[in-house]
Amino acid sequence: MSNVIQKIAKMGKSKELFTCRDVLWLLVFCGFAINYMLRLNLNLTIVAMVLPYSKPAAAVQCNIENNTLLWTNETSQNNNVSSSFSITKPSSKNVTYEDRFAWNEYEQGLVLGAYYWLHWLSQLPGGLLARRYGTKLVFGLANLLTALLGFLVPYATHLYAFIILRMLQGLIAGVIWPSMHDMTAKWIPPNERSRFISAYLGSSVGAAITYPLCATVTSFFGWGASFHVMSLLGIMWYCLWKFLVYDSPQQHPRISDDEKNYIMDNIAKSIDKEETQIPWKSIILSGPIWITIVAHWSSAWGFLTLMTQAPTYFNFVHGWNINTTGILAGTPHILRMIFSYFFSIMSDWLLRTKRMSLTNVRKLATFVCTGVQGILIMALGFSGCHPLFAIVFMMTGTAVNGAISAATLTNFVDLSPNYASILLGFGNMIISWAGFISPAIVGVLTNNNQNVGQWRLVFLIAAANSIAGGIIYIFFGTSKEQPWNQYVKLNSKEREMQELATKAIKSDNSIENANDTEKINFSEER
Questions:
Q1: CB atoms within 10 A of CB 164
Q2: Residue 127, CA distances (Å) to 75, 175, 179, 372, 420 in order
Q3: Alpha-carbon distance 302 to 513, whole Å?
Q4: pLDDT tens across 193-206, in order?
Q5: Rounded-to-integer distance, Cα 78 and Cα 505, Å
Q6: What is the average pLDDT value for the chain, to the nearest integer?
Q7: Which of 77, 278, 361, 456 measures 20 to 30 Å from 127, CA to CA?
């Protein structure tokens, strides 16, 4: 009878509906959503912050004057005659925009890229700080401080004051992504990593919420209110993070013994608590790390171009009003999250069933988020006079980037679970440059020259970056755990071998000395 009761109890435990890993996934998902909401609110809001163009470029260049052009001018919005899918010719009335800035395209590029100017600088420290103080503190405080700075943004009325605030936000938020890899390595077994890292793409849902929410808030309360709303959401998330998340299974007070043992048994081979020394030389000289960084750069450049520039492109070229821009610029990020979740489940299934090796799974995912993405961005560049095609290619190009959760983003953990946060920090330190180089290029190419041809060049540059890095990774990439992941054990073995060799040499020397002494004594006796 007691055996039956024990079996029933075990069955109840095995059917635990909501594990601590599930709670962690949800809060990580929301944390990255908040991170992107605070990062991207400017991308759409800037449409309502700067003086508008009198007529979209596509209407001028392609002579599109039919119902396929999504154009509504500001005057008709103020008179409640707006329609997101109709044409309204520019009004001849003089309209004043007292709350708007007279920033040209170059200055807009500076404002949009300012977040990334110092963002790269805190990437590597983010990984180091997480190893020392824990992801809970580093990740949580970074989101909180970025949110608090967001309250100040609407009051920065000068261009350079605005840029400085955005730089500070980017600097603080730079620790967020690499710090999470330390927690992932401690909580998630290898065959669950792809699915768990799909939580990082809560960033996509954050983007999808940000665009329509900013559009709605801006329409009713002005563009300054959108920054306040995003910051308030960030503070609410921090309260939940503070009380529900712990750095490791051992520290969690409510975790079941079954879940804790399952986690520890499955990560014990790759995680070493004694790994305190960092093999900097091995990391910097590691070929697999650099190949992963190249592919990650490629995916990031294409995605950042779509994410940062899409609202501006569709506003100036195709004449979308802010509400239409918000909805249609946000939708692709929902698709990205959905694609990421199911692609990561498929990737973990391929690993569990051993249908593909770990390296080949990562190469397949990288091909999708770089090569396929690059082709779709190229198609977007050549769809300039056809807004319907532009919508389709922009949405699918953003969606397929979701494969990154099973690609290079996870590969940093595969290569070295012990130093995963440092690897991502080191990689992001380089990759973050794409975040401000891309807007700067857009600003230079389109400054006082908003036309379909210049935007086509922007997208072709992004496509070339995306495809090139993917090809390099497919030929040379690997996901094998690197020998220096067990740096302390490796060094201890080397020391043991050296000690044994030293002892052997000493014993040989002592034997030789003893033999020499015997020879001397023997000769003296003679």
A1: 14
A2: 49, 7, 5, 30, 8
A3: 71
A4: 878 888 888 888 88
A5: 91
A6: 78
A7: 361
Question: DSSP character for 369?
Answer: I
Q: How far apart are CA 203 and CA 337, in angstroms?
A: 8
- Using the predicted structure, report yes or no on whether residue 64 has a pLDDT greater than 50: no
Secondary structure (H, E, C), 171-224: HHHCCHHHHHHHHHHHHCCHHHHHHHHHHHHHHHHHHHHHHHHHHHHHHHHCHH
Give the model's pLDDT for residue 138. Answer: 93
Cα–Cα distances in angstroms (integers) from residue 283 to residues 125, 174, 299, 427, 482, in the given order:
15, 20, 22, 11, 10
Question: What's the Cα-to-Cα distance from 35 to each of 147, 169, 234, 303, 326, rounded to whole Å?
Answer: 9, 10, 8, 16, 18
Sign of CA dihedral 387, 390, 392, 398: negative
The domain ranges of the chain are 19-91+98-248+282-481, 486-526
**Dist CA 359 CA 480 (whole Å):** 7
pTM beyond 0.70, yes or no: no
HSE value, Cβ hemisphere, 13 Å, CA-based, for 222: 9
pLDDT of 520 over the 70 cut: no
Question: Which of 382, 394, 348 lies closest to 456 in space, CA to CA?
Answer: 382
Q: Residue 83: what pLDDT?
A: 33
Is the model's pLDDT at 67 over the cut of 50?
no
Task: Give residues with Cβ within 8 angstroms of 190, minimum separation 6.
Answer: 266, 267, 270, 351, 414
Structure tokens that stand for 210 in this block = 């940000």
Q: Which residue has the higher pLDDT, 3 or 337?
A: 337
Token pair belonging to 185: 């390595």
- Within 10 A of 12 (CB to CB), how many other CB atoms are there? 9
Q: What is the CATH class of 19-91+98-248+282-481?
A: mainly alpha
Q: What is the DSSP string of 23-45?
A: HHHHHHHHHHHHHHHHHHHHHHH
The count of residues in the chain is 526
415, 206, 442: which is closest to 317 by C-alpha? 442
Q: What separation, in Å, do the N-terminal and C-terminal C-alpha atoms of the chain show?
A: 90
User: Residues 44, 215: contact at Cβ < 8 Å?
Assistant: yes
Q: In this model, does residue 278 exceed pLDDT 60? A: yes
Give the CA distances from residue 118 to residues 13, 105, 450, 508, in Å, rounded to whole numbers and listed in that order.
47, 21, 28, 59
User: Cα–Cα distance between 313 and 373 in angstroms, integer?
Assistant: 18
Rounded Cα distance, 507 and 503, in Å:
6
Q: Which of helix, strand or coil describes residue 50? A: strand
Section 218-226 average pLDDT: 83
Q: Under a CB-based contact definition with an 8 Å cutoff, are residues 61 and 324 in contact?
A: no
Helix H or strand E segment including 248 = none
Render 370-407 in DSSP notation, one character per residue.
Answer: IIIHHHHHHHHHTTTT-HHHHHHHHHHHHHGGGGGGGT
Paired tokens of 272: 């070493």
Q: Which two tokens stand for residue 202?
A: 């809560």
